[in-house]
Amino acid sequence: MLPRASLAADLQFYSLAGLGQFNKPVRSVREERFKNLVEQQYDFSCGAAAVTTVLKYAYNLDVTELDVIEGMLEVSDPEIVAEKGFSLLDIRKYVQKHSLRGRGYNVEPEALDSIRIPTITLLNIKGYQHFVVLKRTIGDSVYVADPALGNRVIPRDEFIKGWNGVIFAVIGKGFDKQTVLSQSEPALTARRFMDSFSPISNSELLDFGFSHADLF
After folding, report:
1. Does domain 34-215 have CATH number 3.40.50.10190?
2. What is the rounded CA–CA span in Å between residue 149 and residue 133?
3. Closest by CA position to 122, among listed 168, 183, 55, 181
4. Is 46 a catalytic residue?
5. Which of these is catalytic: 37, 39, 45, 46?
6. If you ran DSSP here, which 8-state letter would residue 42 be given?
7. Residue 143 near residue 151, CB atoms below 8 Å
């Protein structure tokens, strides 16, 4: 069996007609699964990993999961965190330290397709409350960045069954309107491909509570 490190090594390819050679980086299955996503390192840290994912890939902030855990412990009750993990209130207090704002919204299932910015939400998975980043909903597919399982596509009906109807948006200055978190892969049709990769408009951000000062 090949060593783990060799699975993601560069492969050397040769082109036709004597045009030379080129190298193409090859990702391991695990690397691809956690592409543009911070993997949680502790049982209780799905919330921290979800926050880190949003800050890193939607705001281009240089933060690690450990940075976020330490920062969130400063604004939360460690005993409650040890028992139940972090809460949305802890997350809201933490992002405020970064001059950002946290907003919670109740969303009807029919409105999932209209959510174009990455948000944090809770899923009930076999009785456990688990934070994920909701990236996009396209048709019957919900694209999530799961800190424990990686990027995955959940059937819409299955997602709704485990979802509490609440999303949490991190809003403020510096949001990347072309964030990779708003891109869903694979896109199923040409139109959905274009929708998936189109930048988020200012009007969509204003609808989510961003201010003009955040955008200009």
Report:
1. no
2. 12
3. 168
4. yes
5. 46
6. S
7. yes
pLDDT above 60 for 17: no
DSSP secondary structure, 162-196, as one string: HEEEEEEEEESTT--TT-GGG--SS-SSHHHHHHH
Please answer whether residues 169 and 51 qualify as being in contact, where contact means their C-beta atoms are separated by less than 8 angstroms: no
The residue with greater pLDDT, 132 or 6, is: 132
Give the confidence band of 2 by pLDDT, cuts at 50, 70, 90. very low
Residues 117, 57: Cα–Cα separation, whole Å: 12
Q: Residues 61-84: pLDDT tens digits?
A: 999 999 999 999 999 998 888 888
Written as six digits, the tokens of 183 are 């891109």
Mean pLDDT of 90-117: 93
- Could you tell me where the DSSP H helices lie in 34-135? 46-58, 65-73, 78-84, 88-96
**Across-strand partners of 86?**
none
Residue spans of the domains in the chain: they are 1-33, 34-215
Nearest to residue 170, comparing CAs of 112, 96, 114?
Answer: 96
Q: Give the distance from CA 191 to its chain's centroid.
A: 23
Q: How far apart are CA 60 and CA 170, in angstroms?
A: 13
Cα–Cα dist 118/67, whole Å: 21
Greater pLDDT, 81 or 161: 161
